[in-house]
Backbone:
């Protein structure tokens, strides 16, 4: 049972690099994904505020007291986006 200590050391280093993430790459990606999911939820609930008709807007008004603080920033972020599809699929390389 001959162990390759360089491989073991490399695996241990990779584990600690991923576990502690000192450069915060993973947390920044997760934070960005959480903001995108929140924007999509707000869009489904309050799209009529930016001109997209939503048939369930009467029922989503019940959520307004809980989400009122976020509406200003959300509306600004959604209006400033050029293309939601380009943002979603731009980070993946779908080209040949």
Residues:
């Amino acid at each position: 049972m001959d162990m390759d200590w360089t491989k073991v050391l490399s695996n241990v280093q990779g584990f600690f690099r991923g576990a502690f993430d000192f450069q915060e790459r993973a947390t920044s990606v997760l934070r960005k994904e959480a903001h995108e999911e929140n924007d999509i939820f707000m869009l489904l609930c309050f799209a009529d505020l930016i001109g997209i008709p939503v048939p369930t807007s009467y029922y989503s008004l019940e959520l307004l007291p809980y989400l009122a603080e976020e509406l200003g920033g959300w509306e600004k972020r959604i209006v400033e986006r050029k293309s939601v599809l380009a943002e979603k699929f731009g980070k993946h390389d779908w080209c040949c």
The first helix runs from residue 5 to 20.
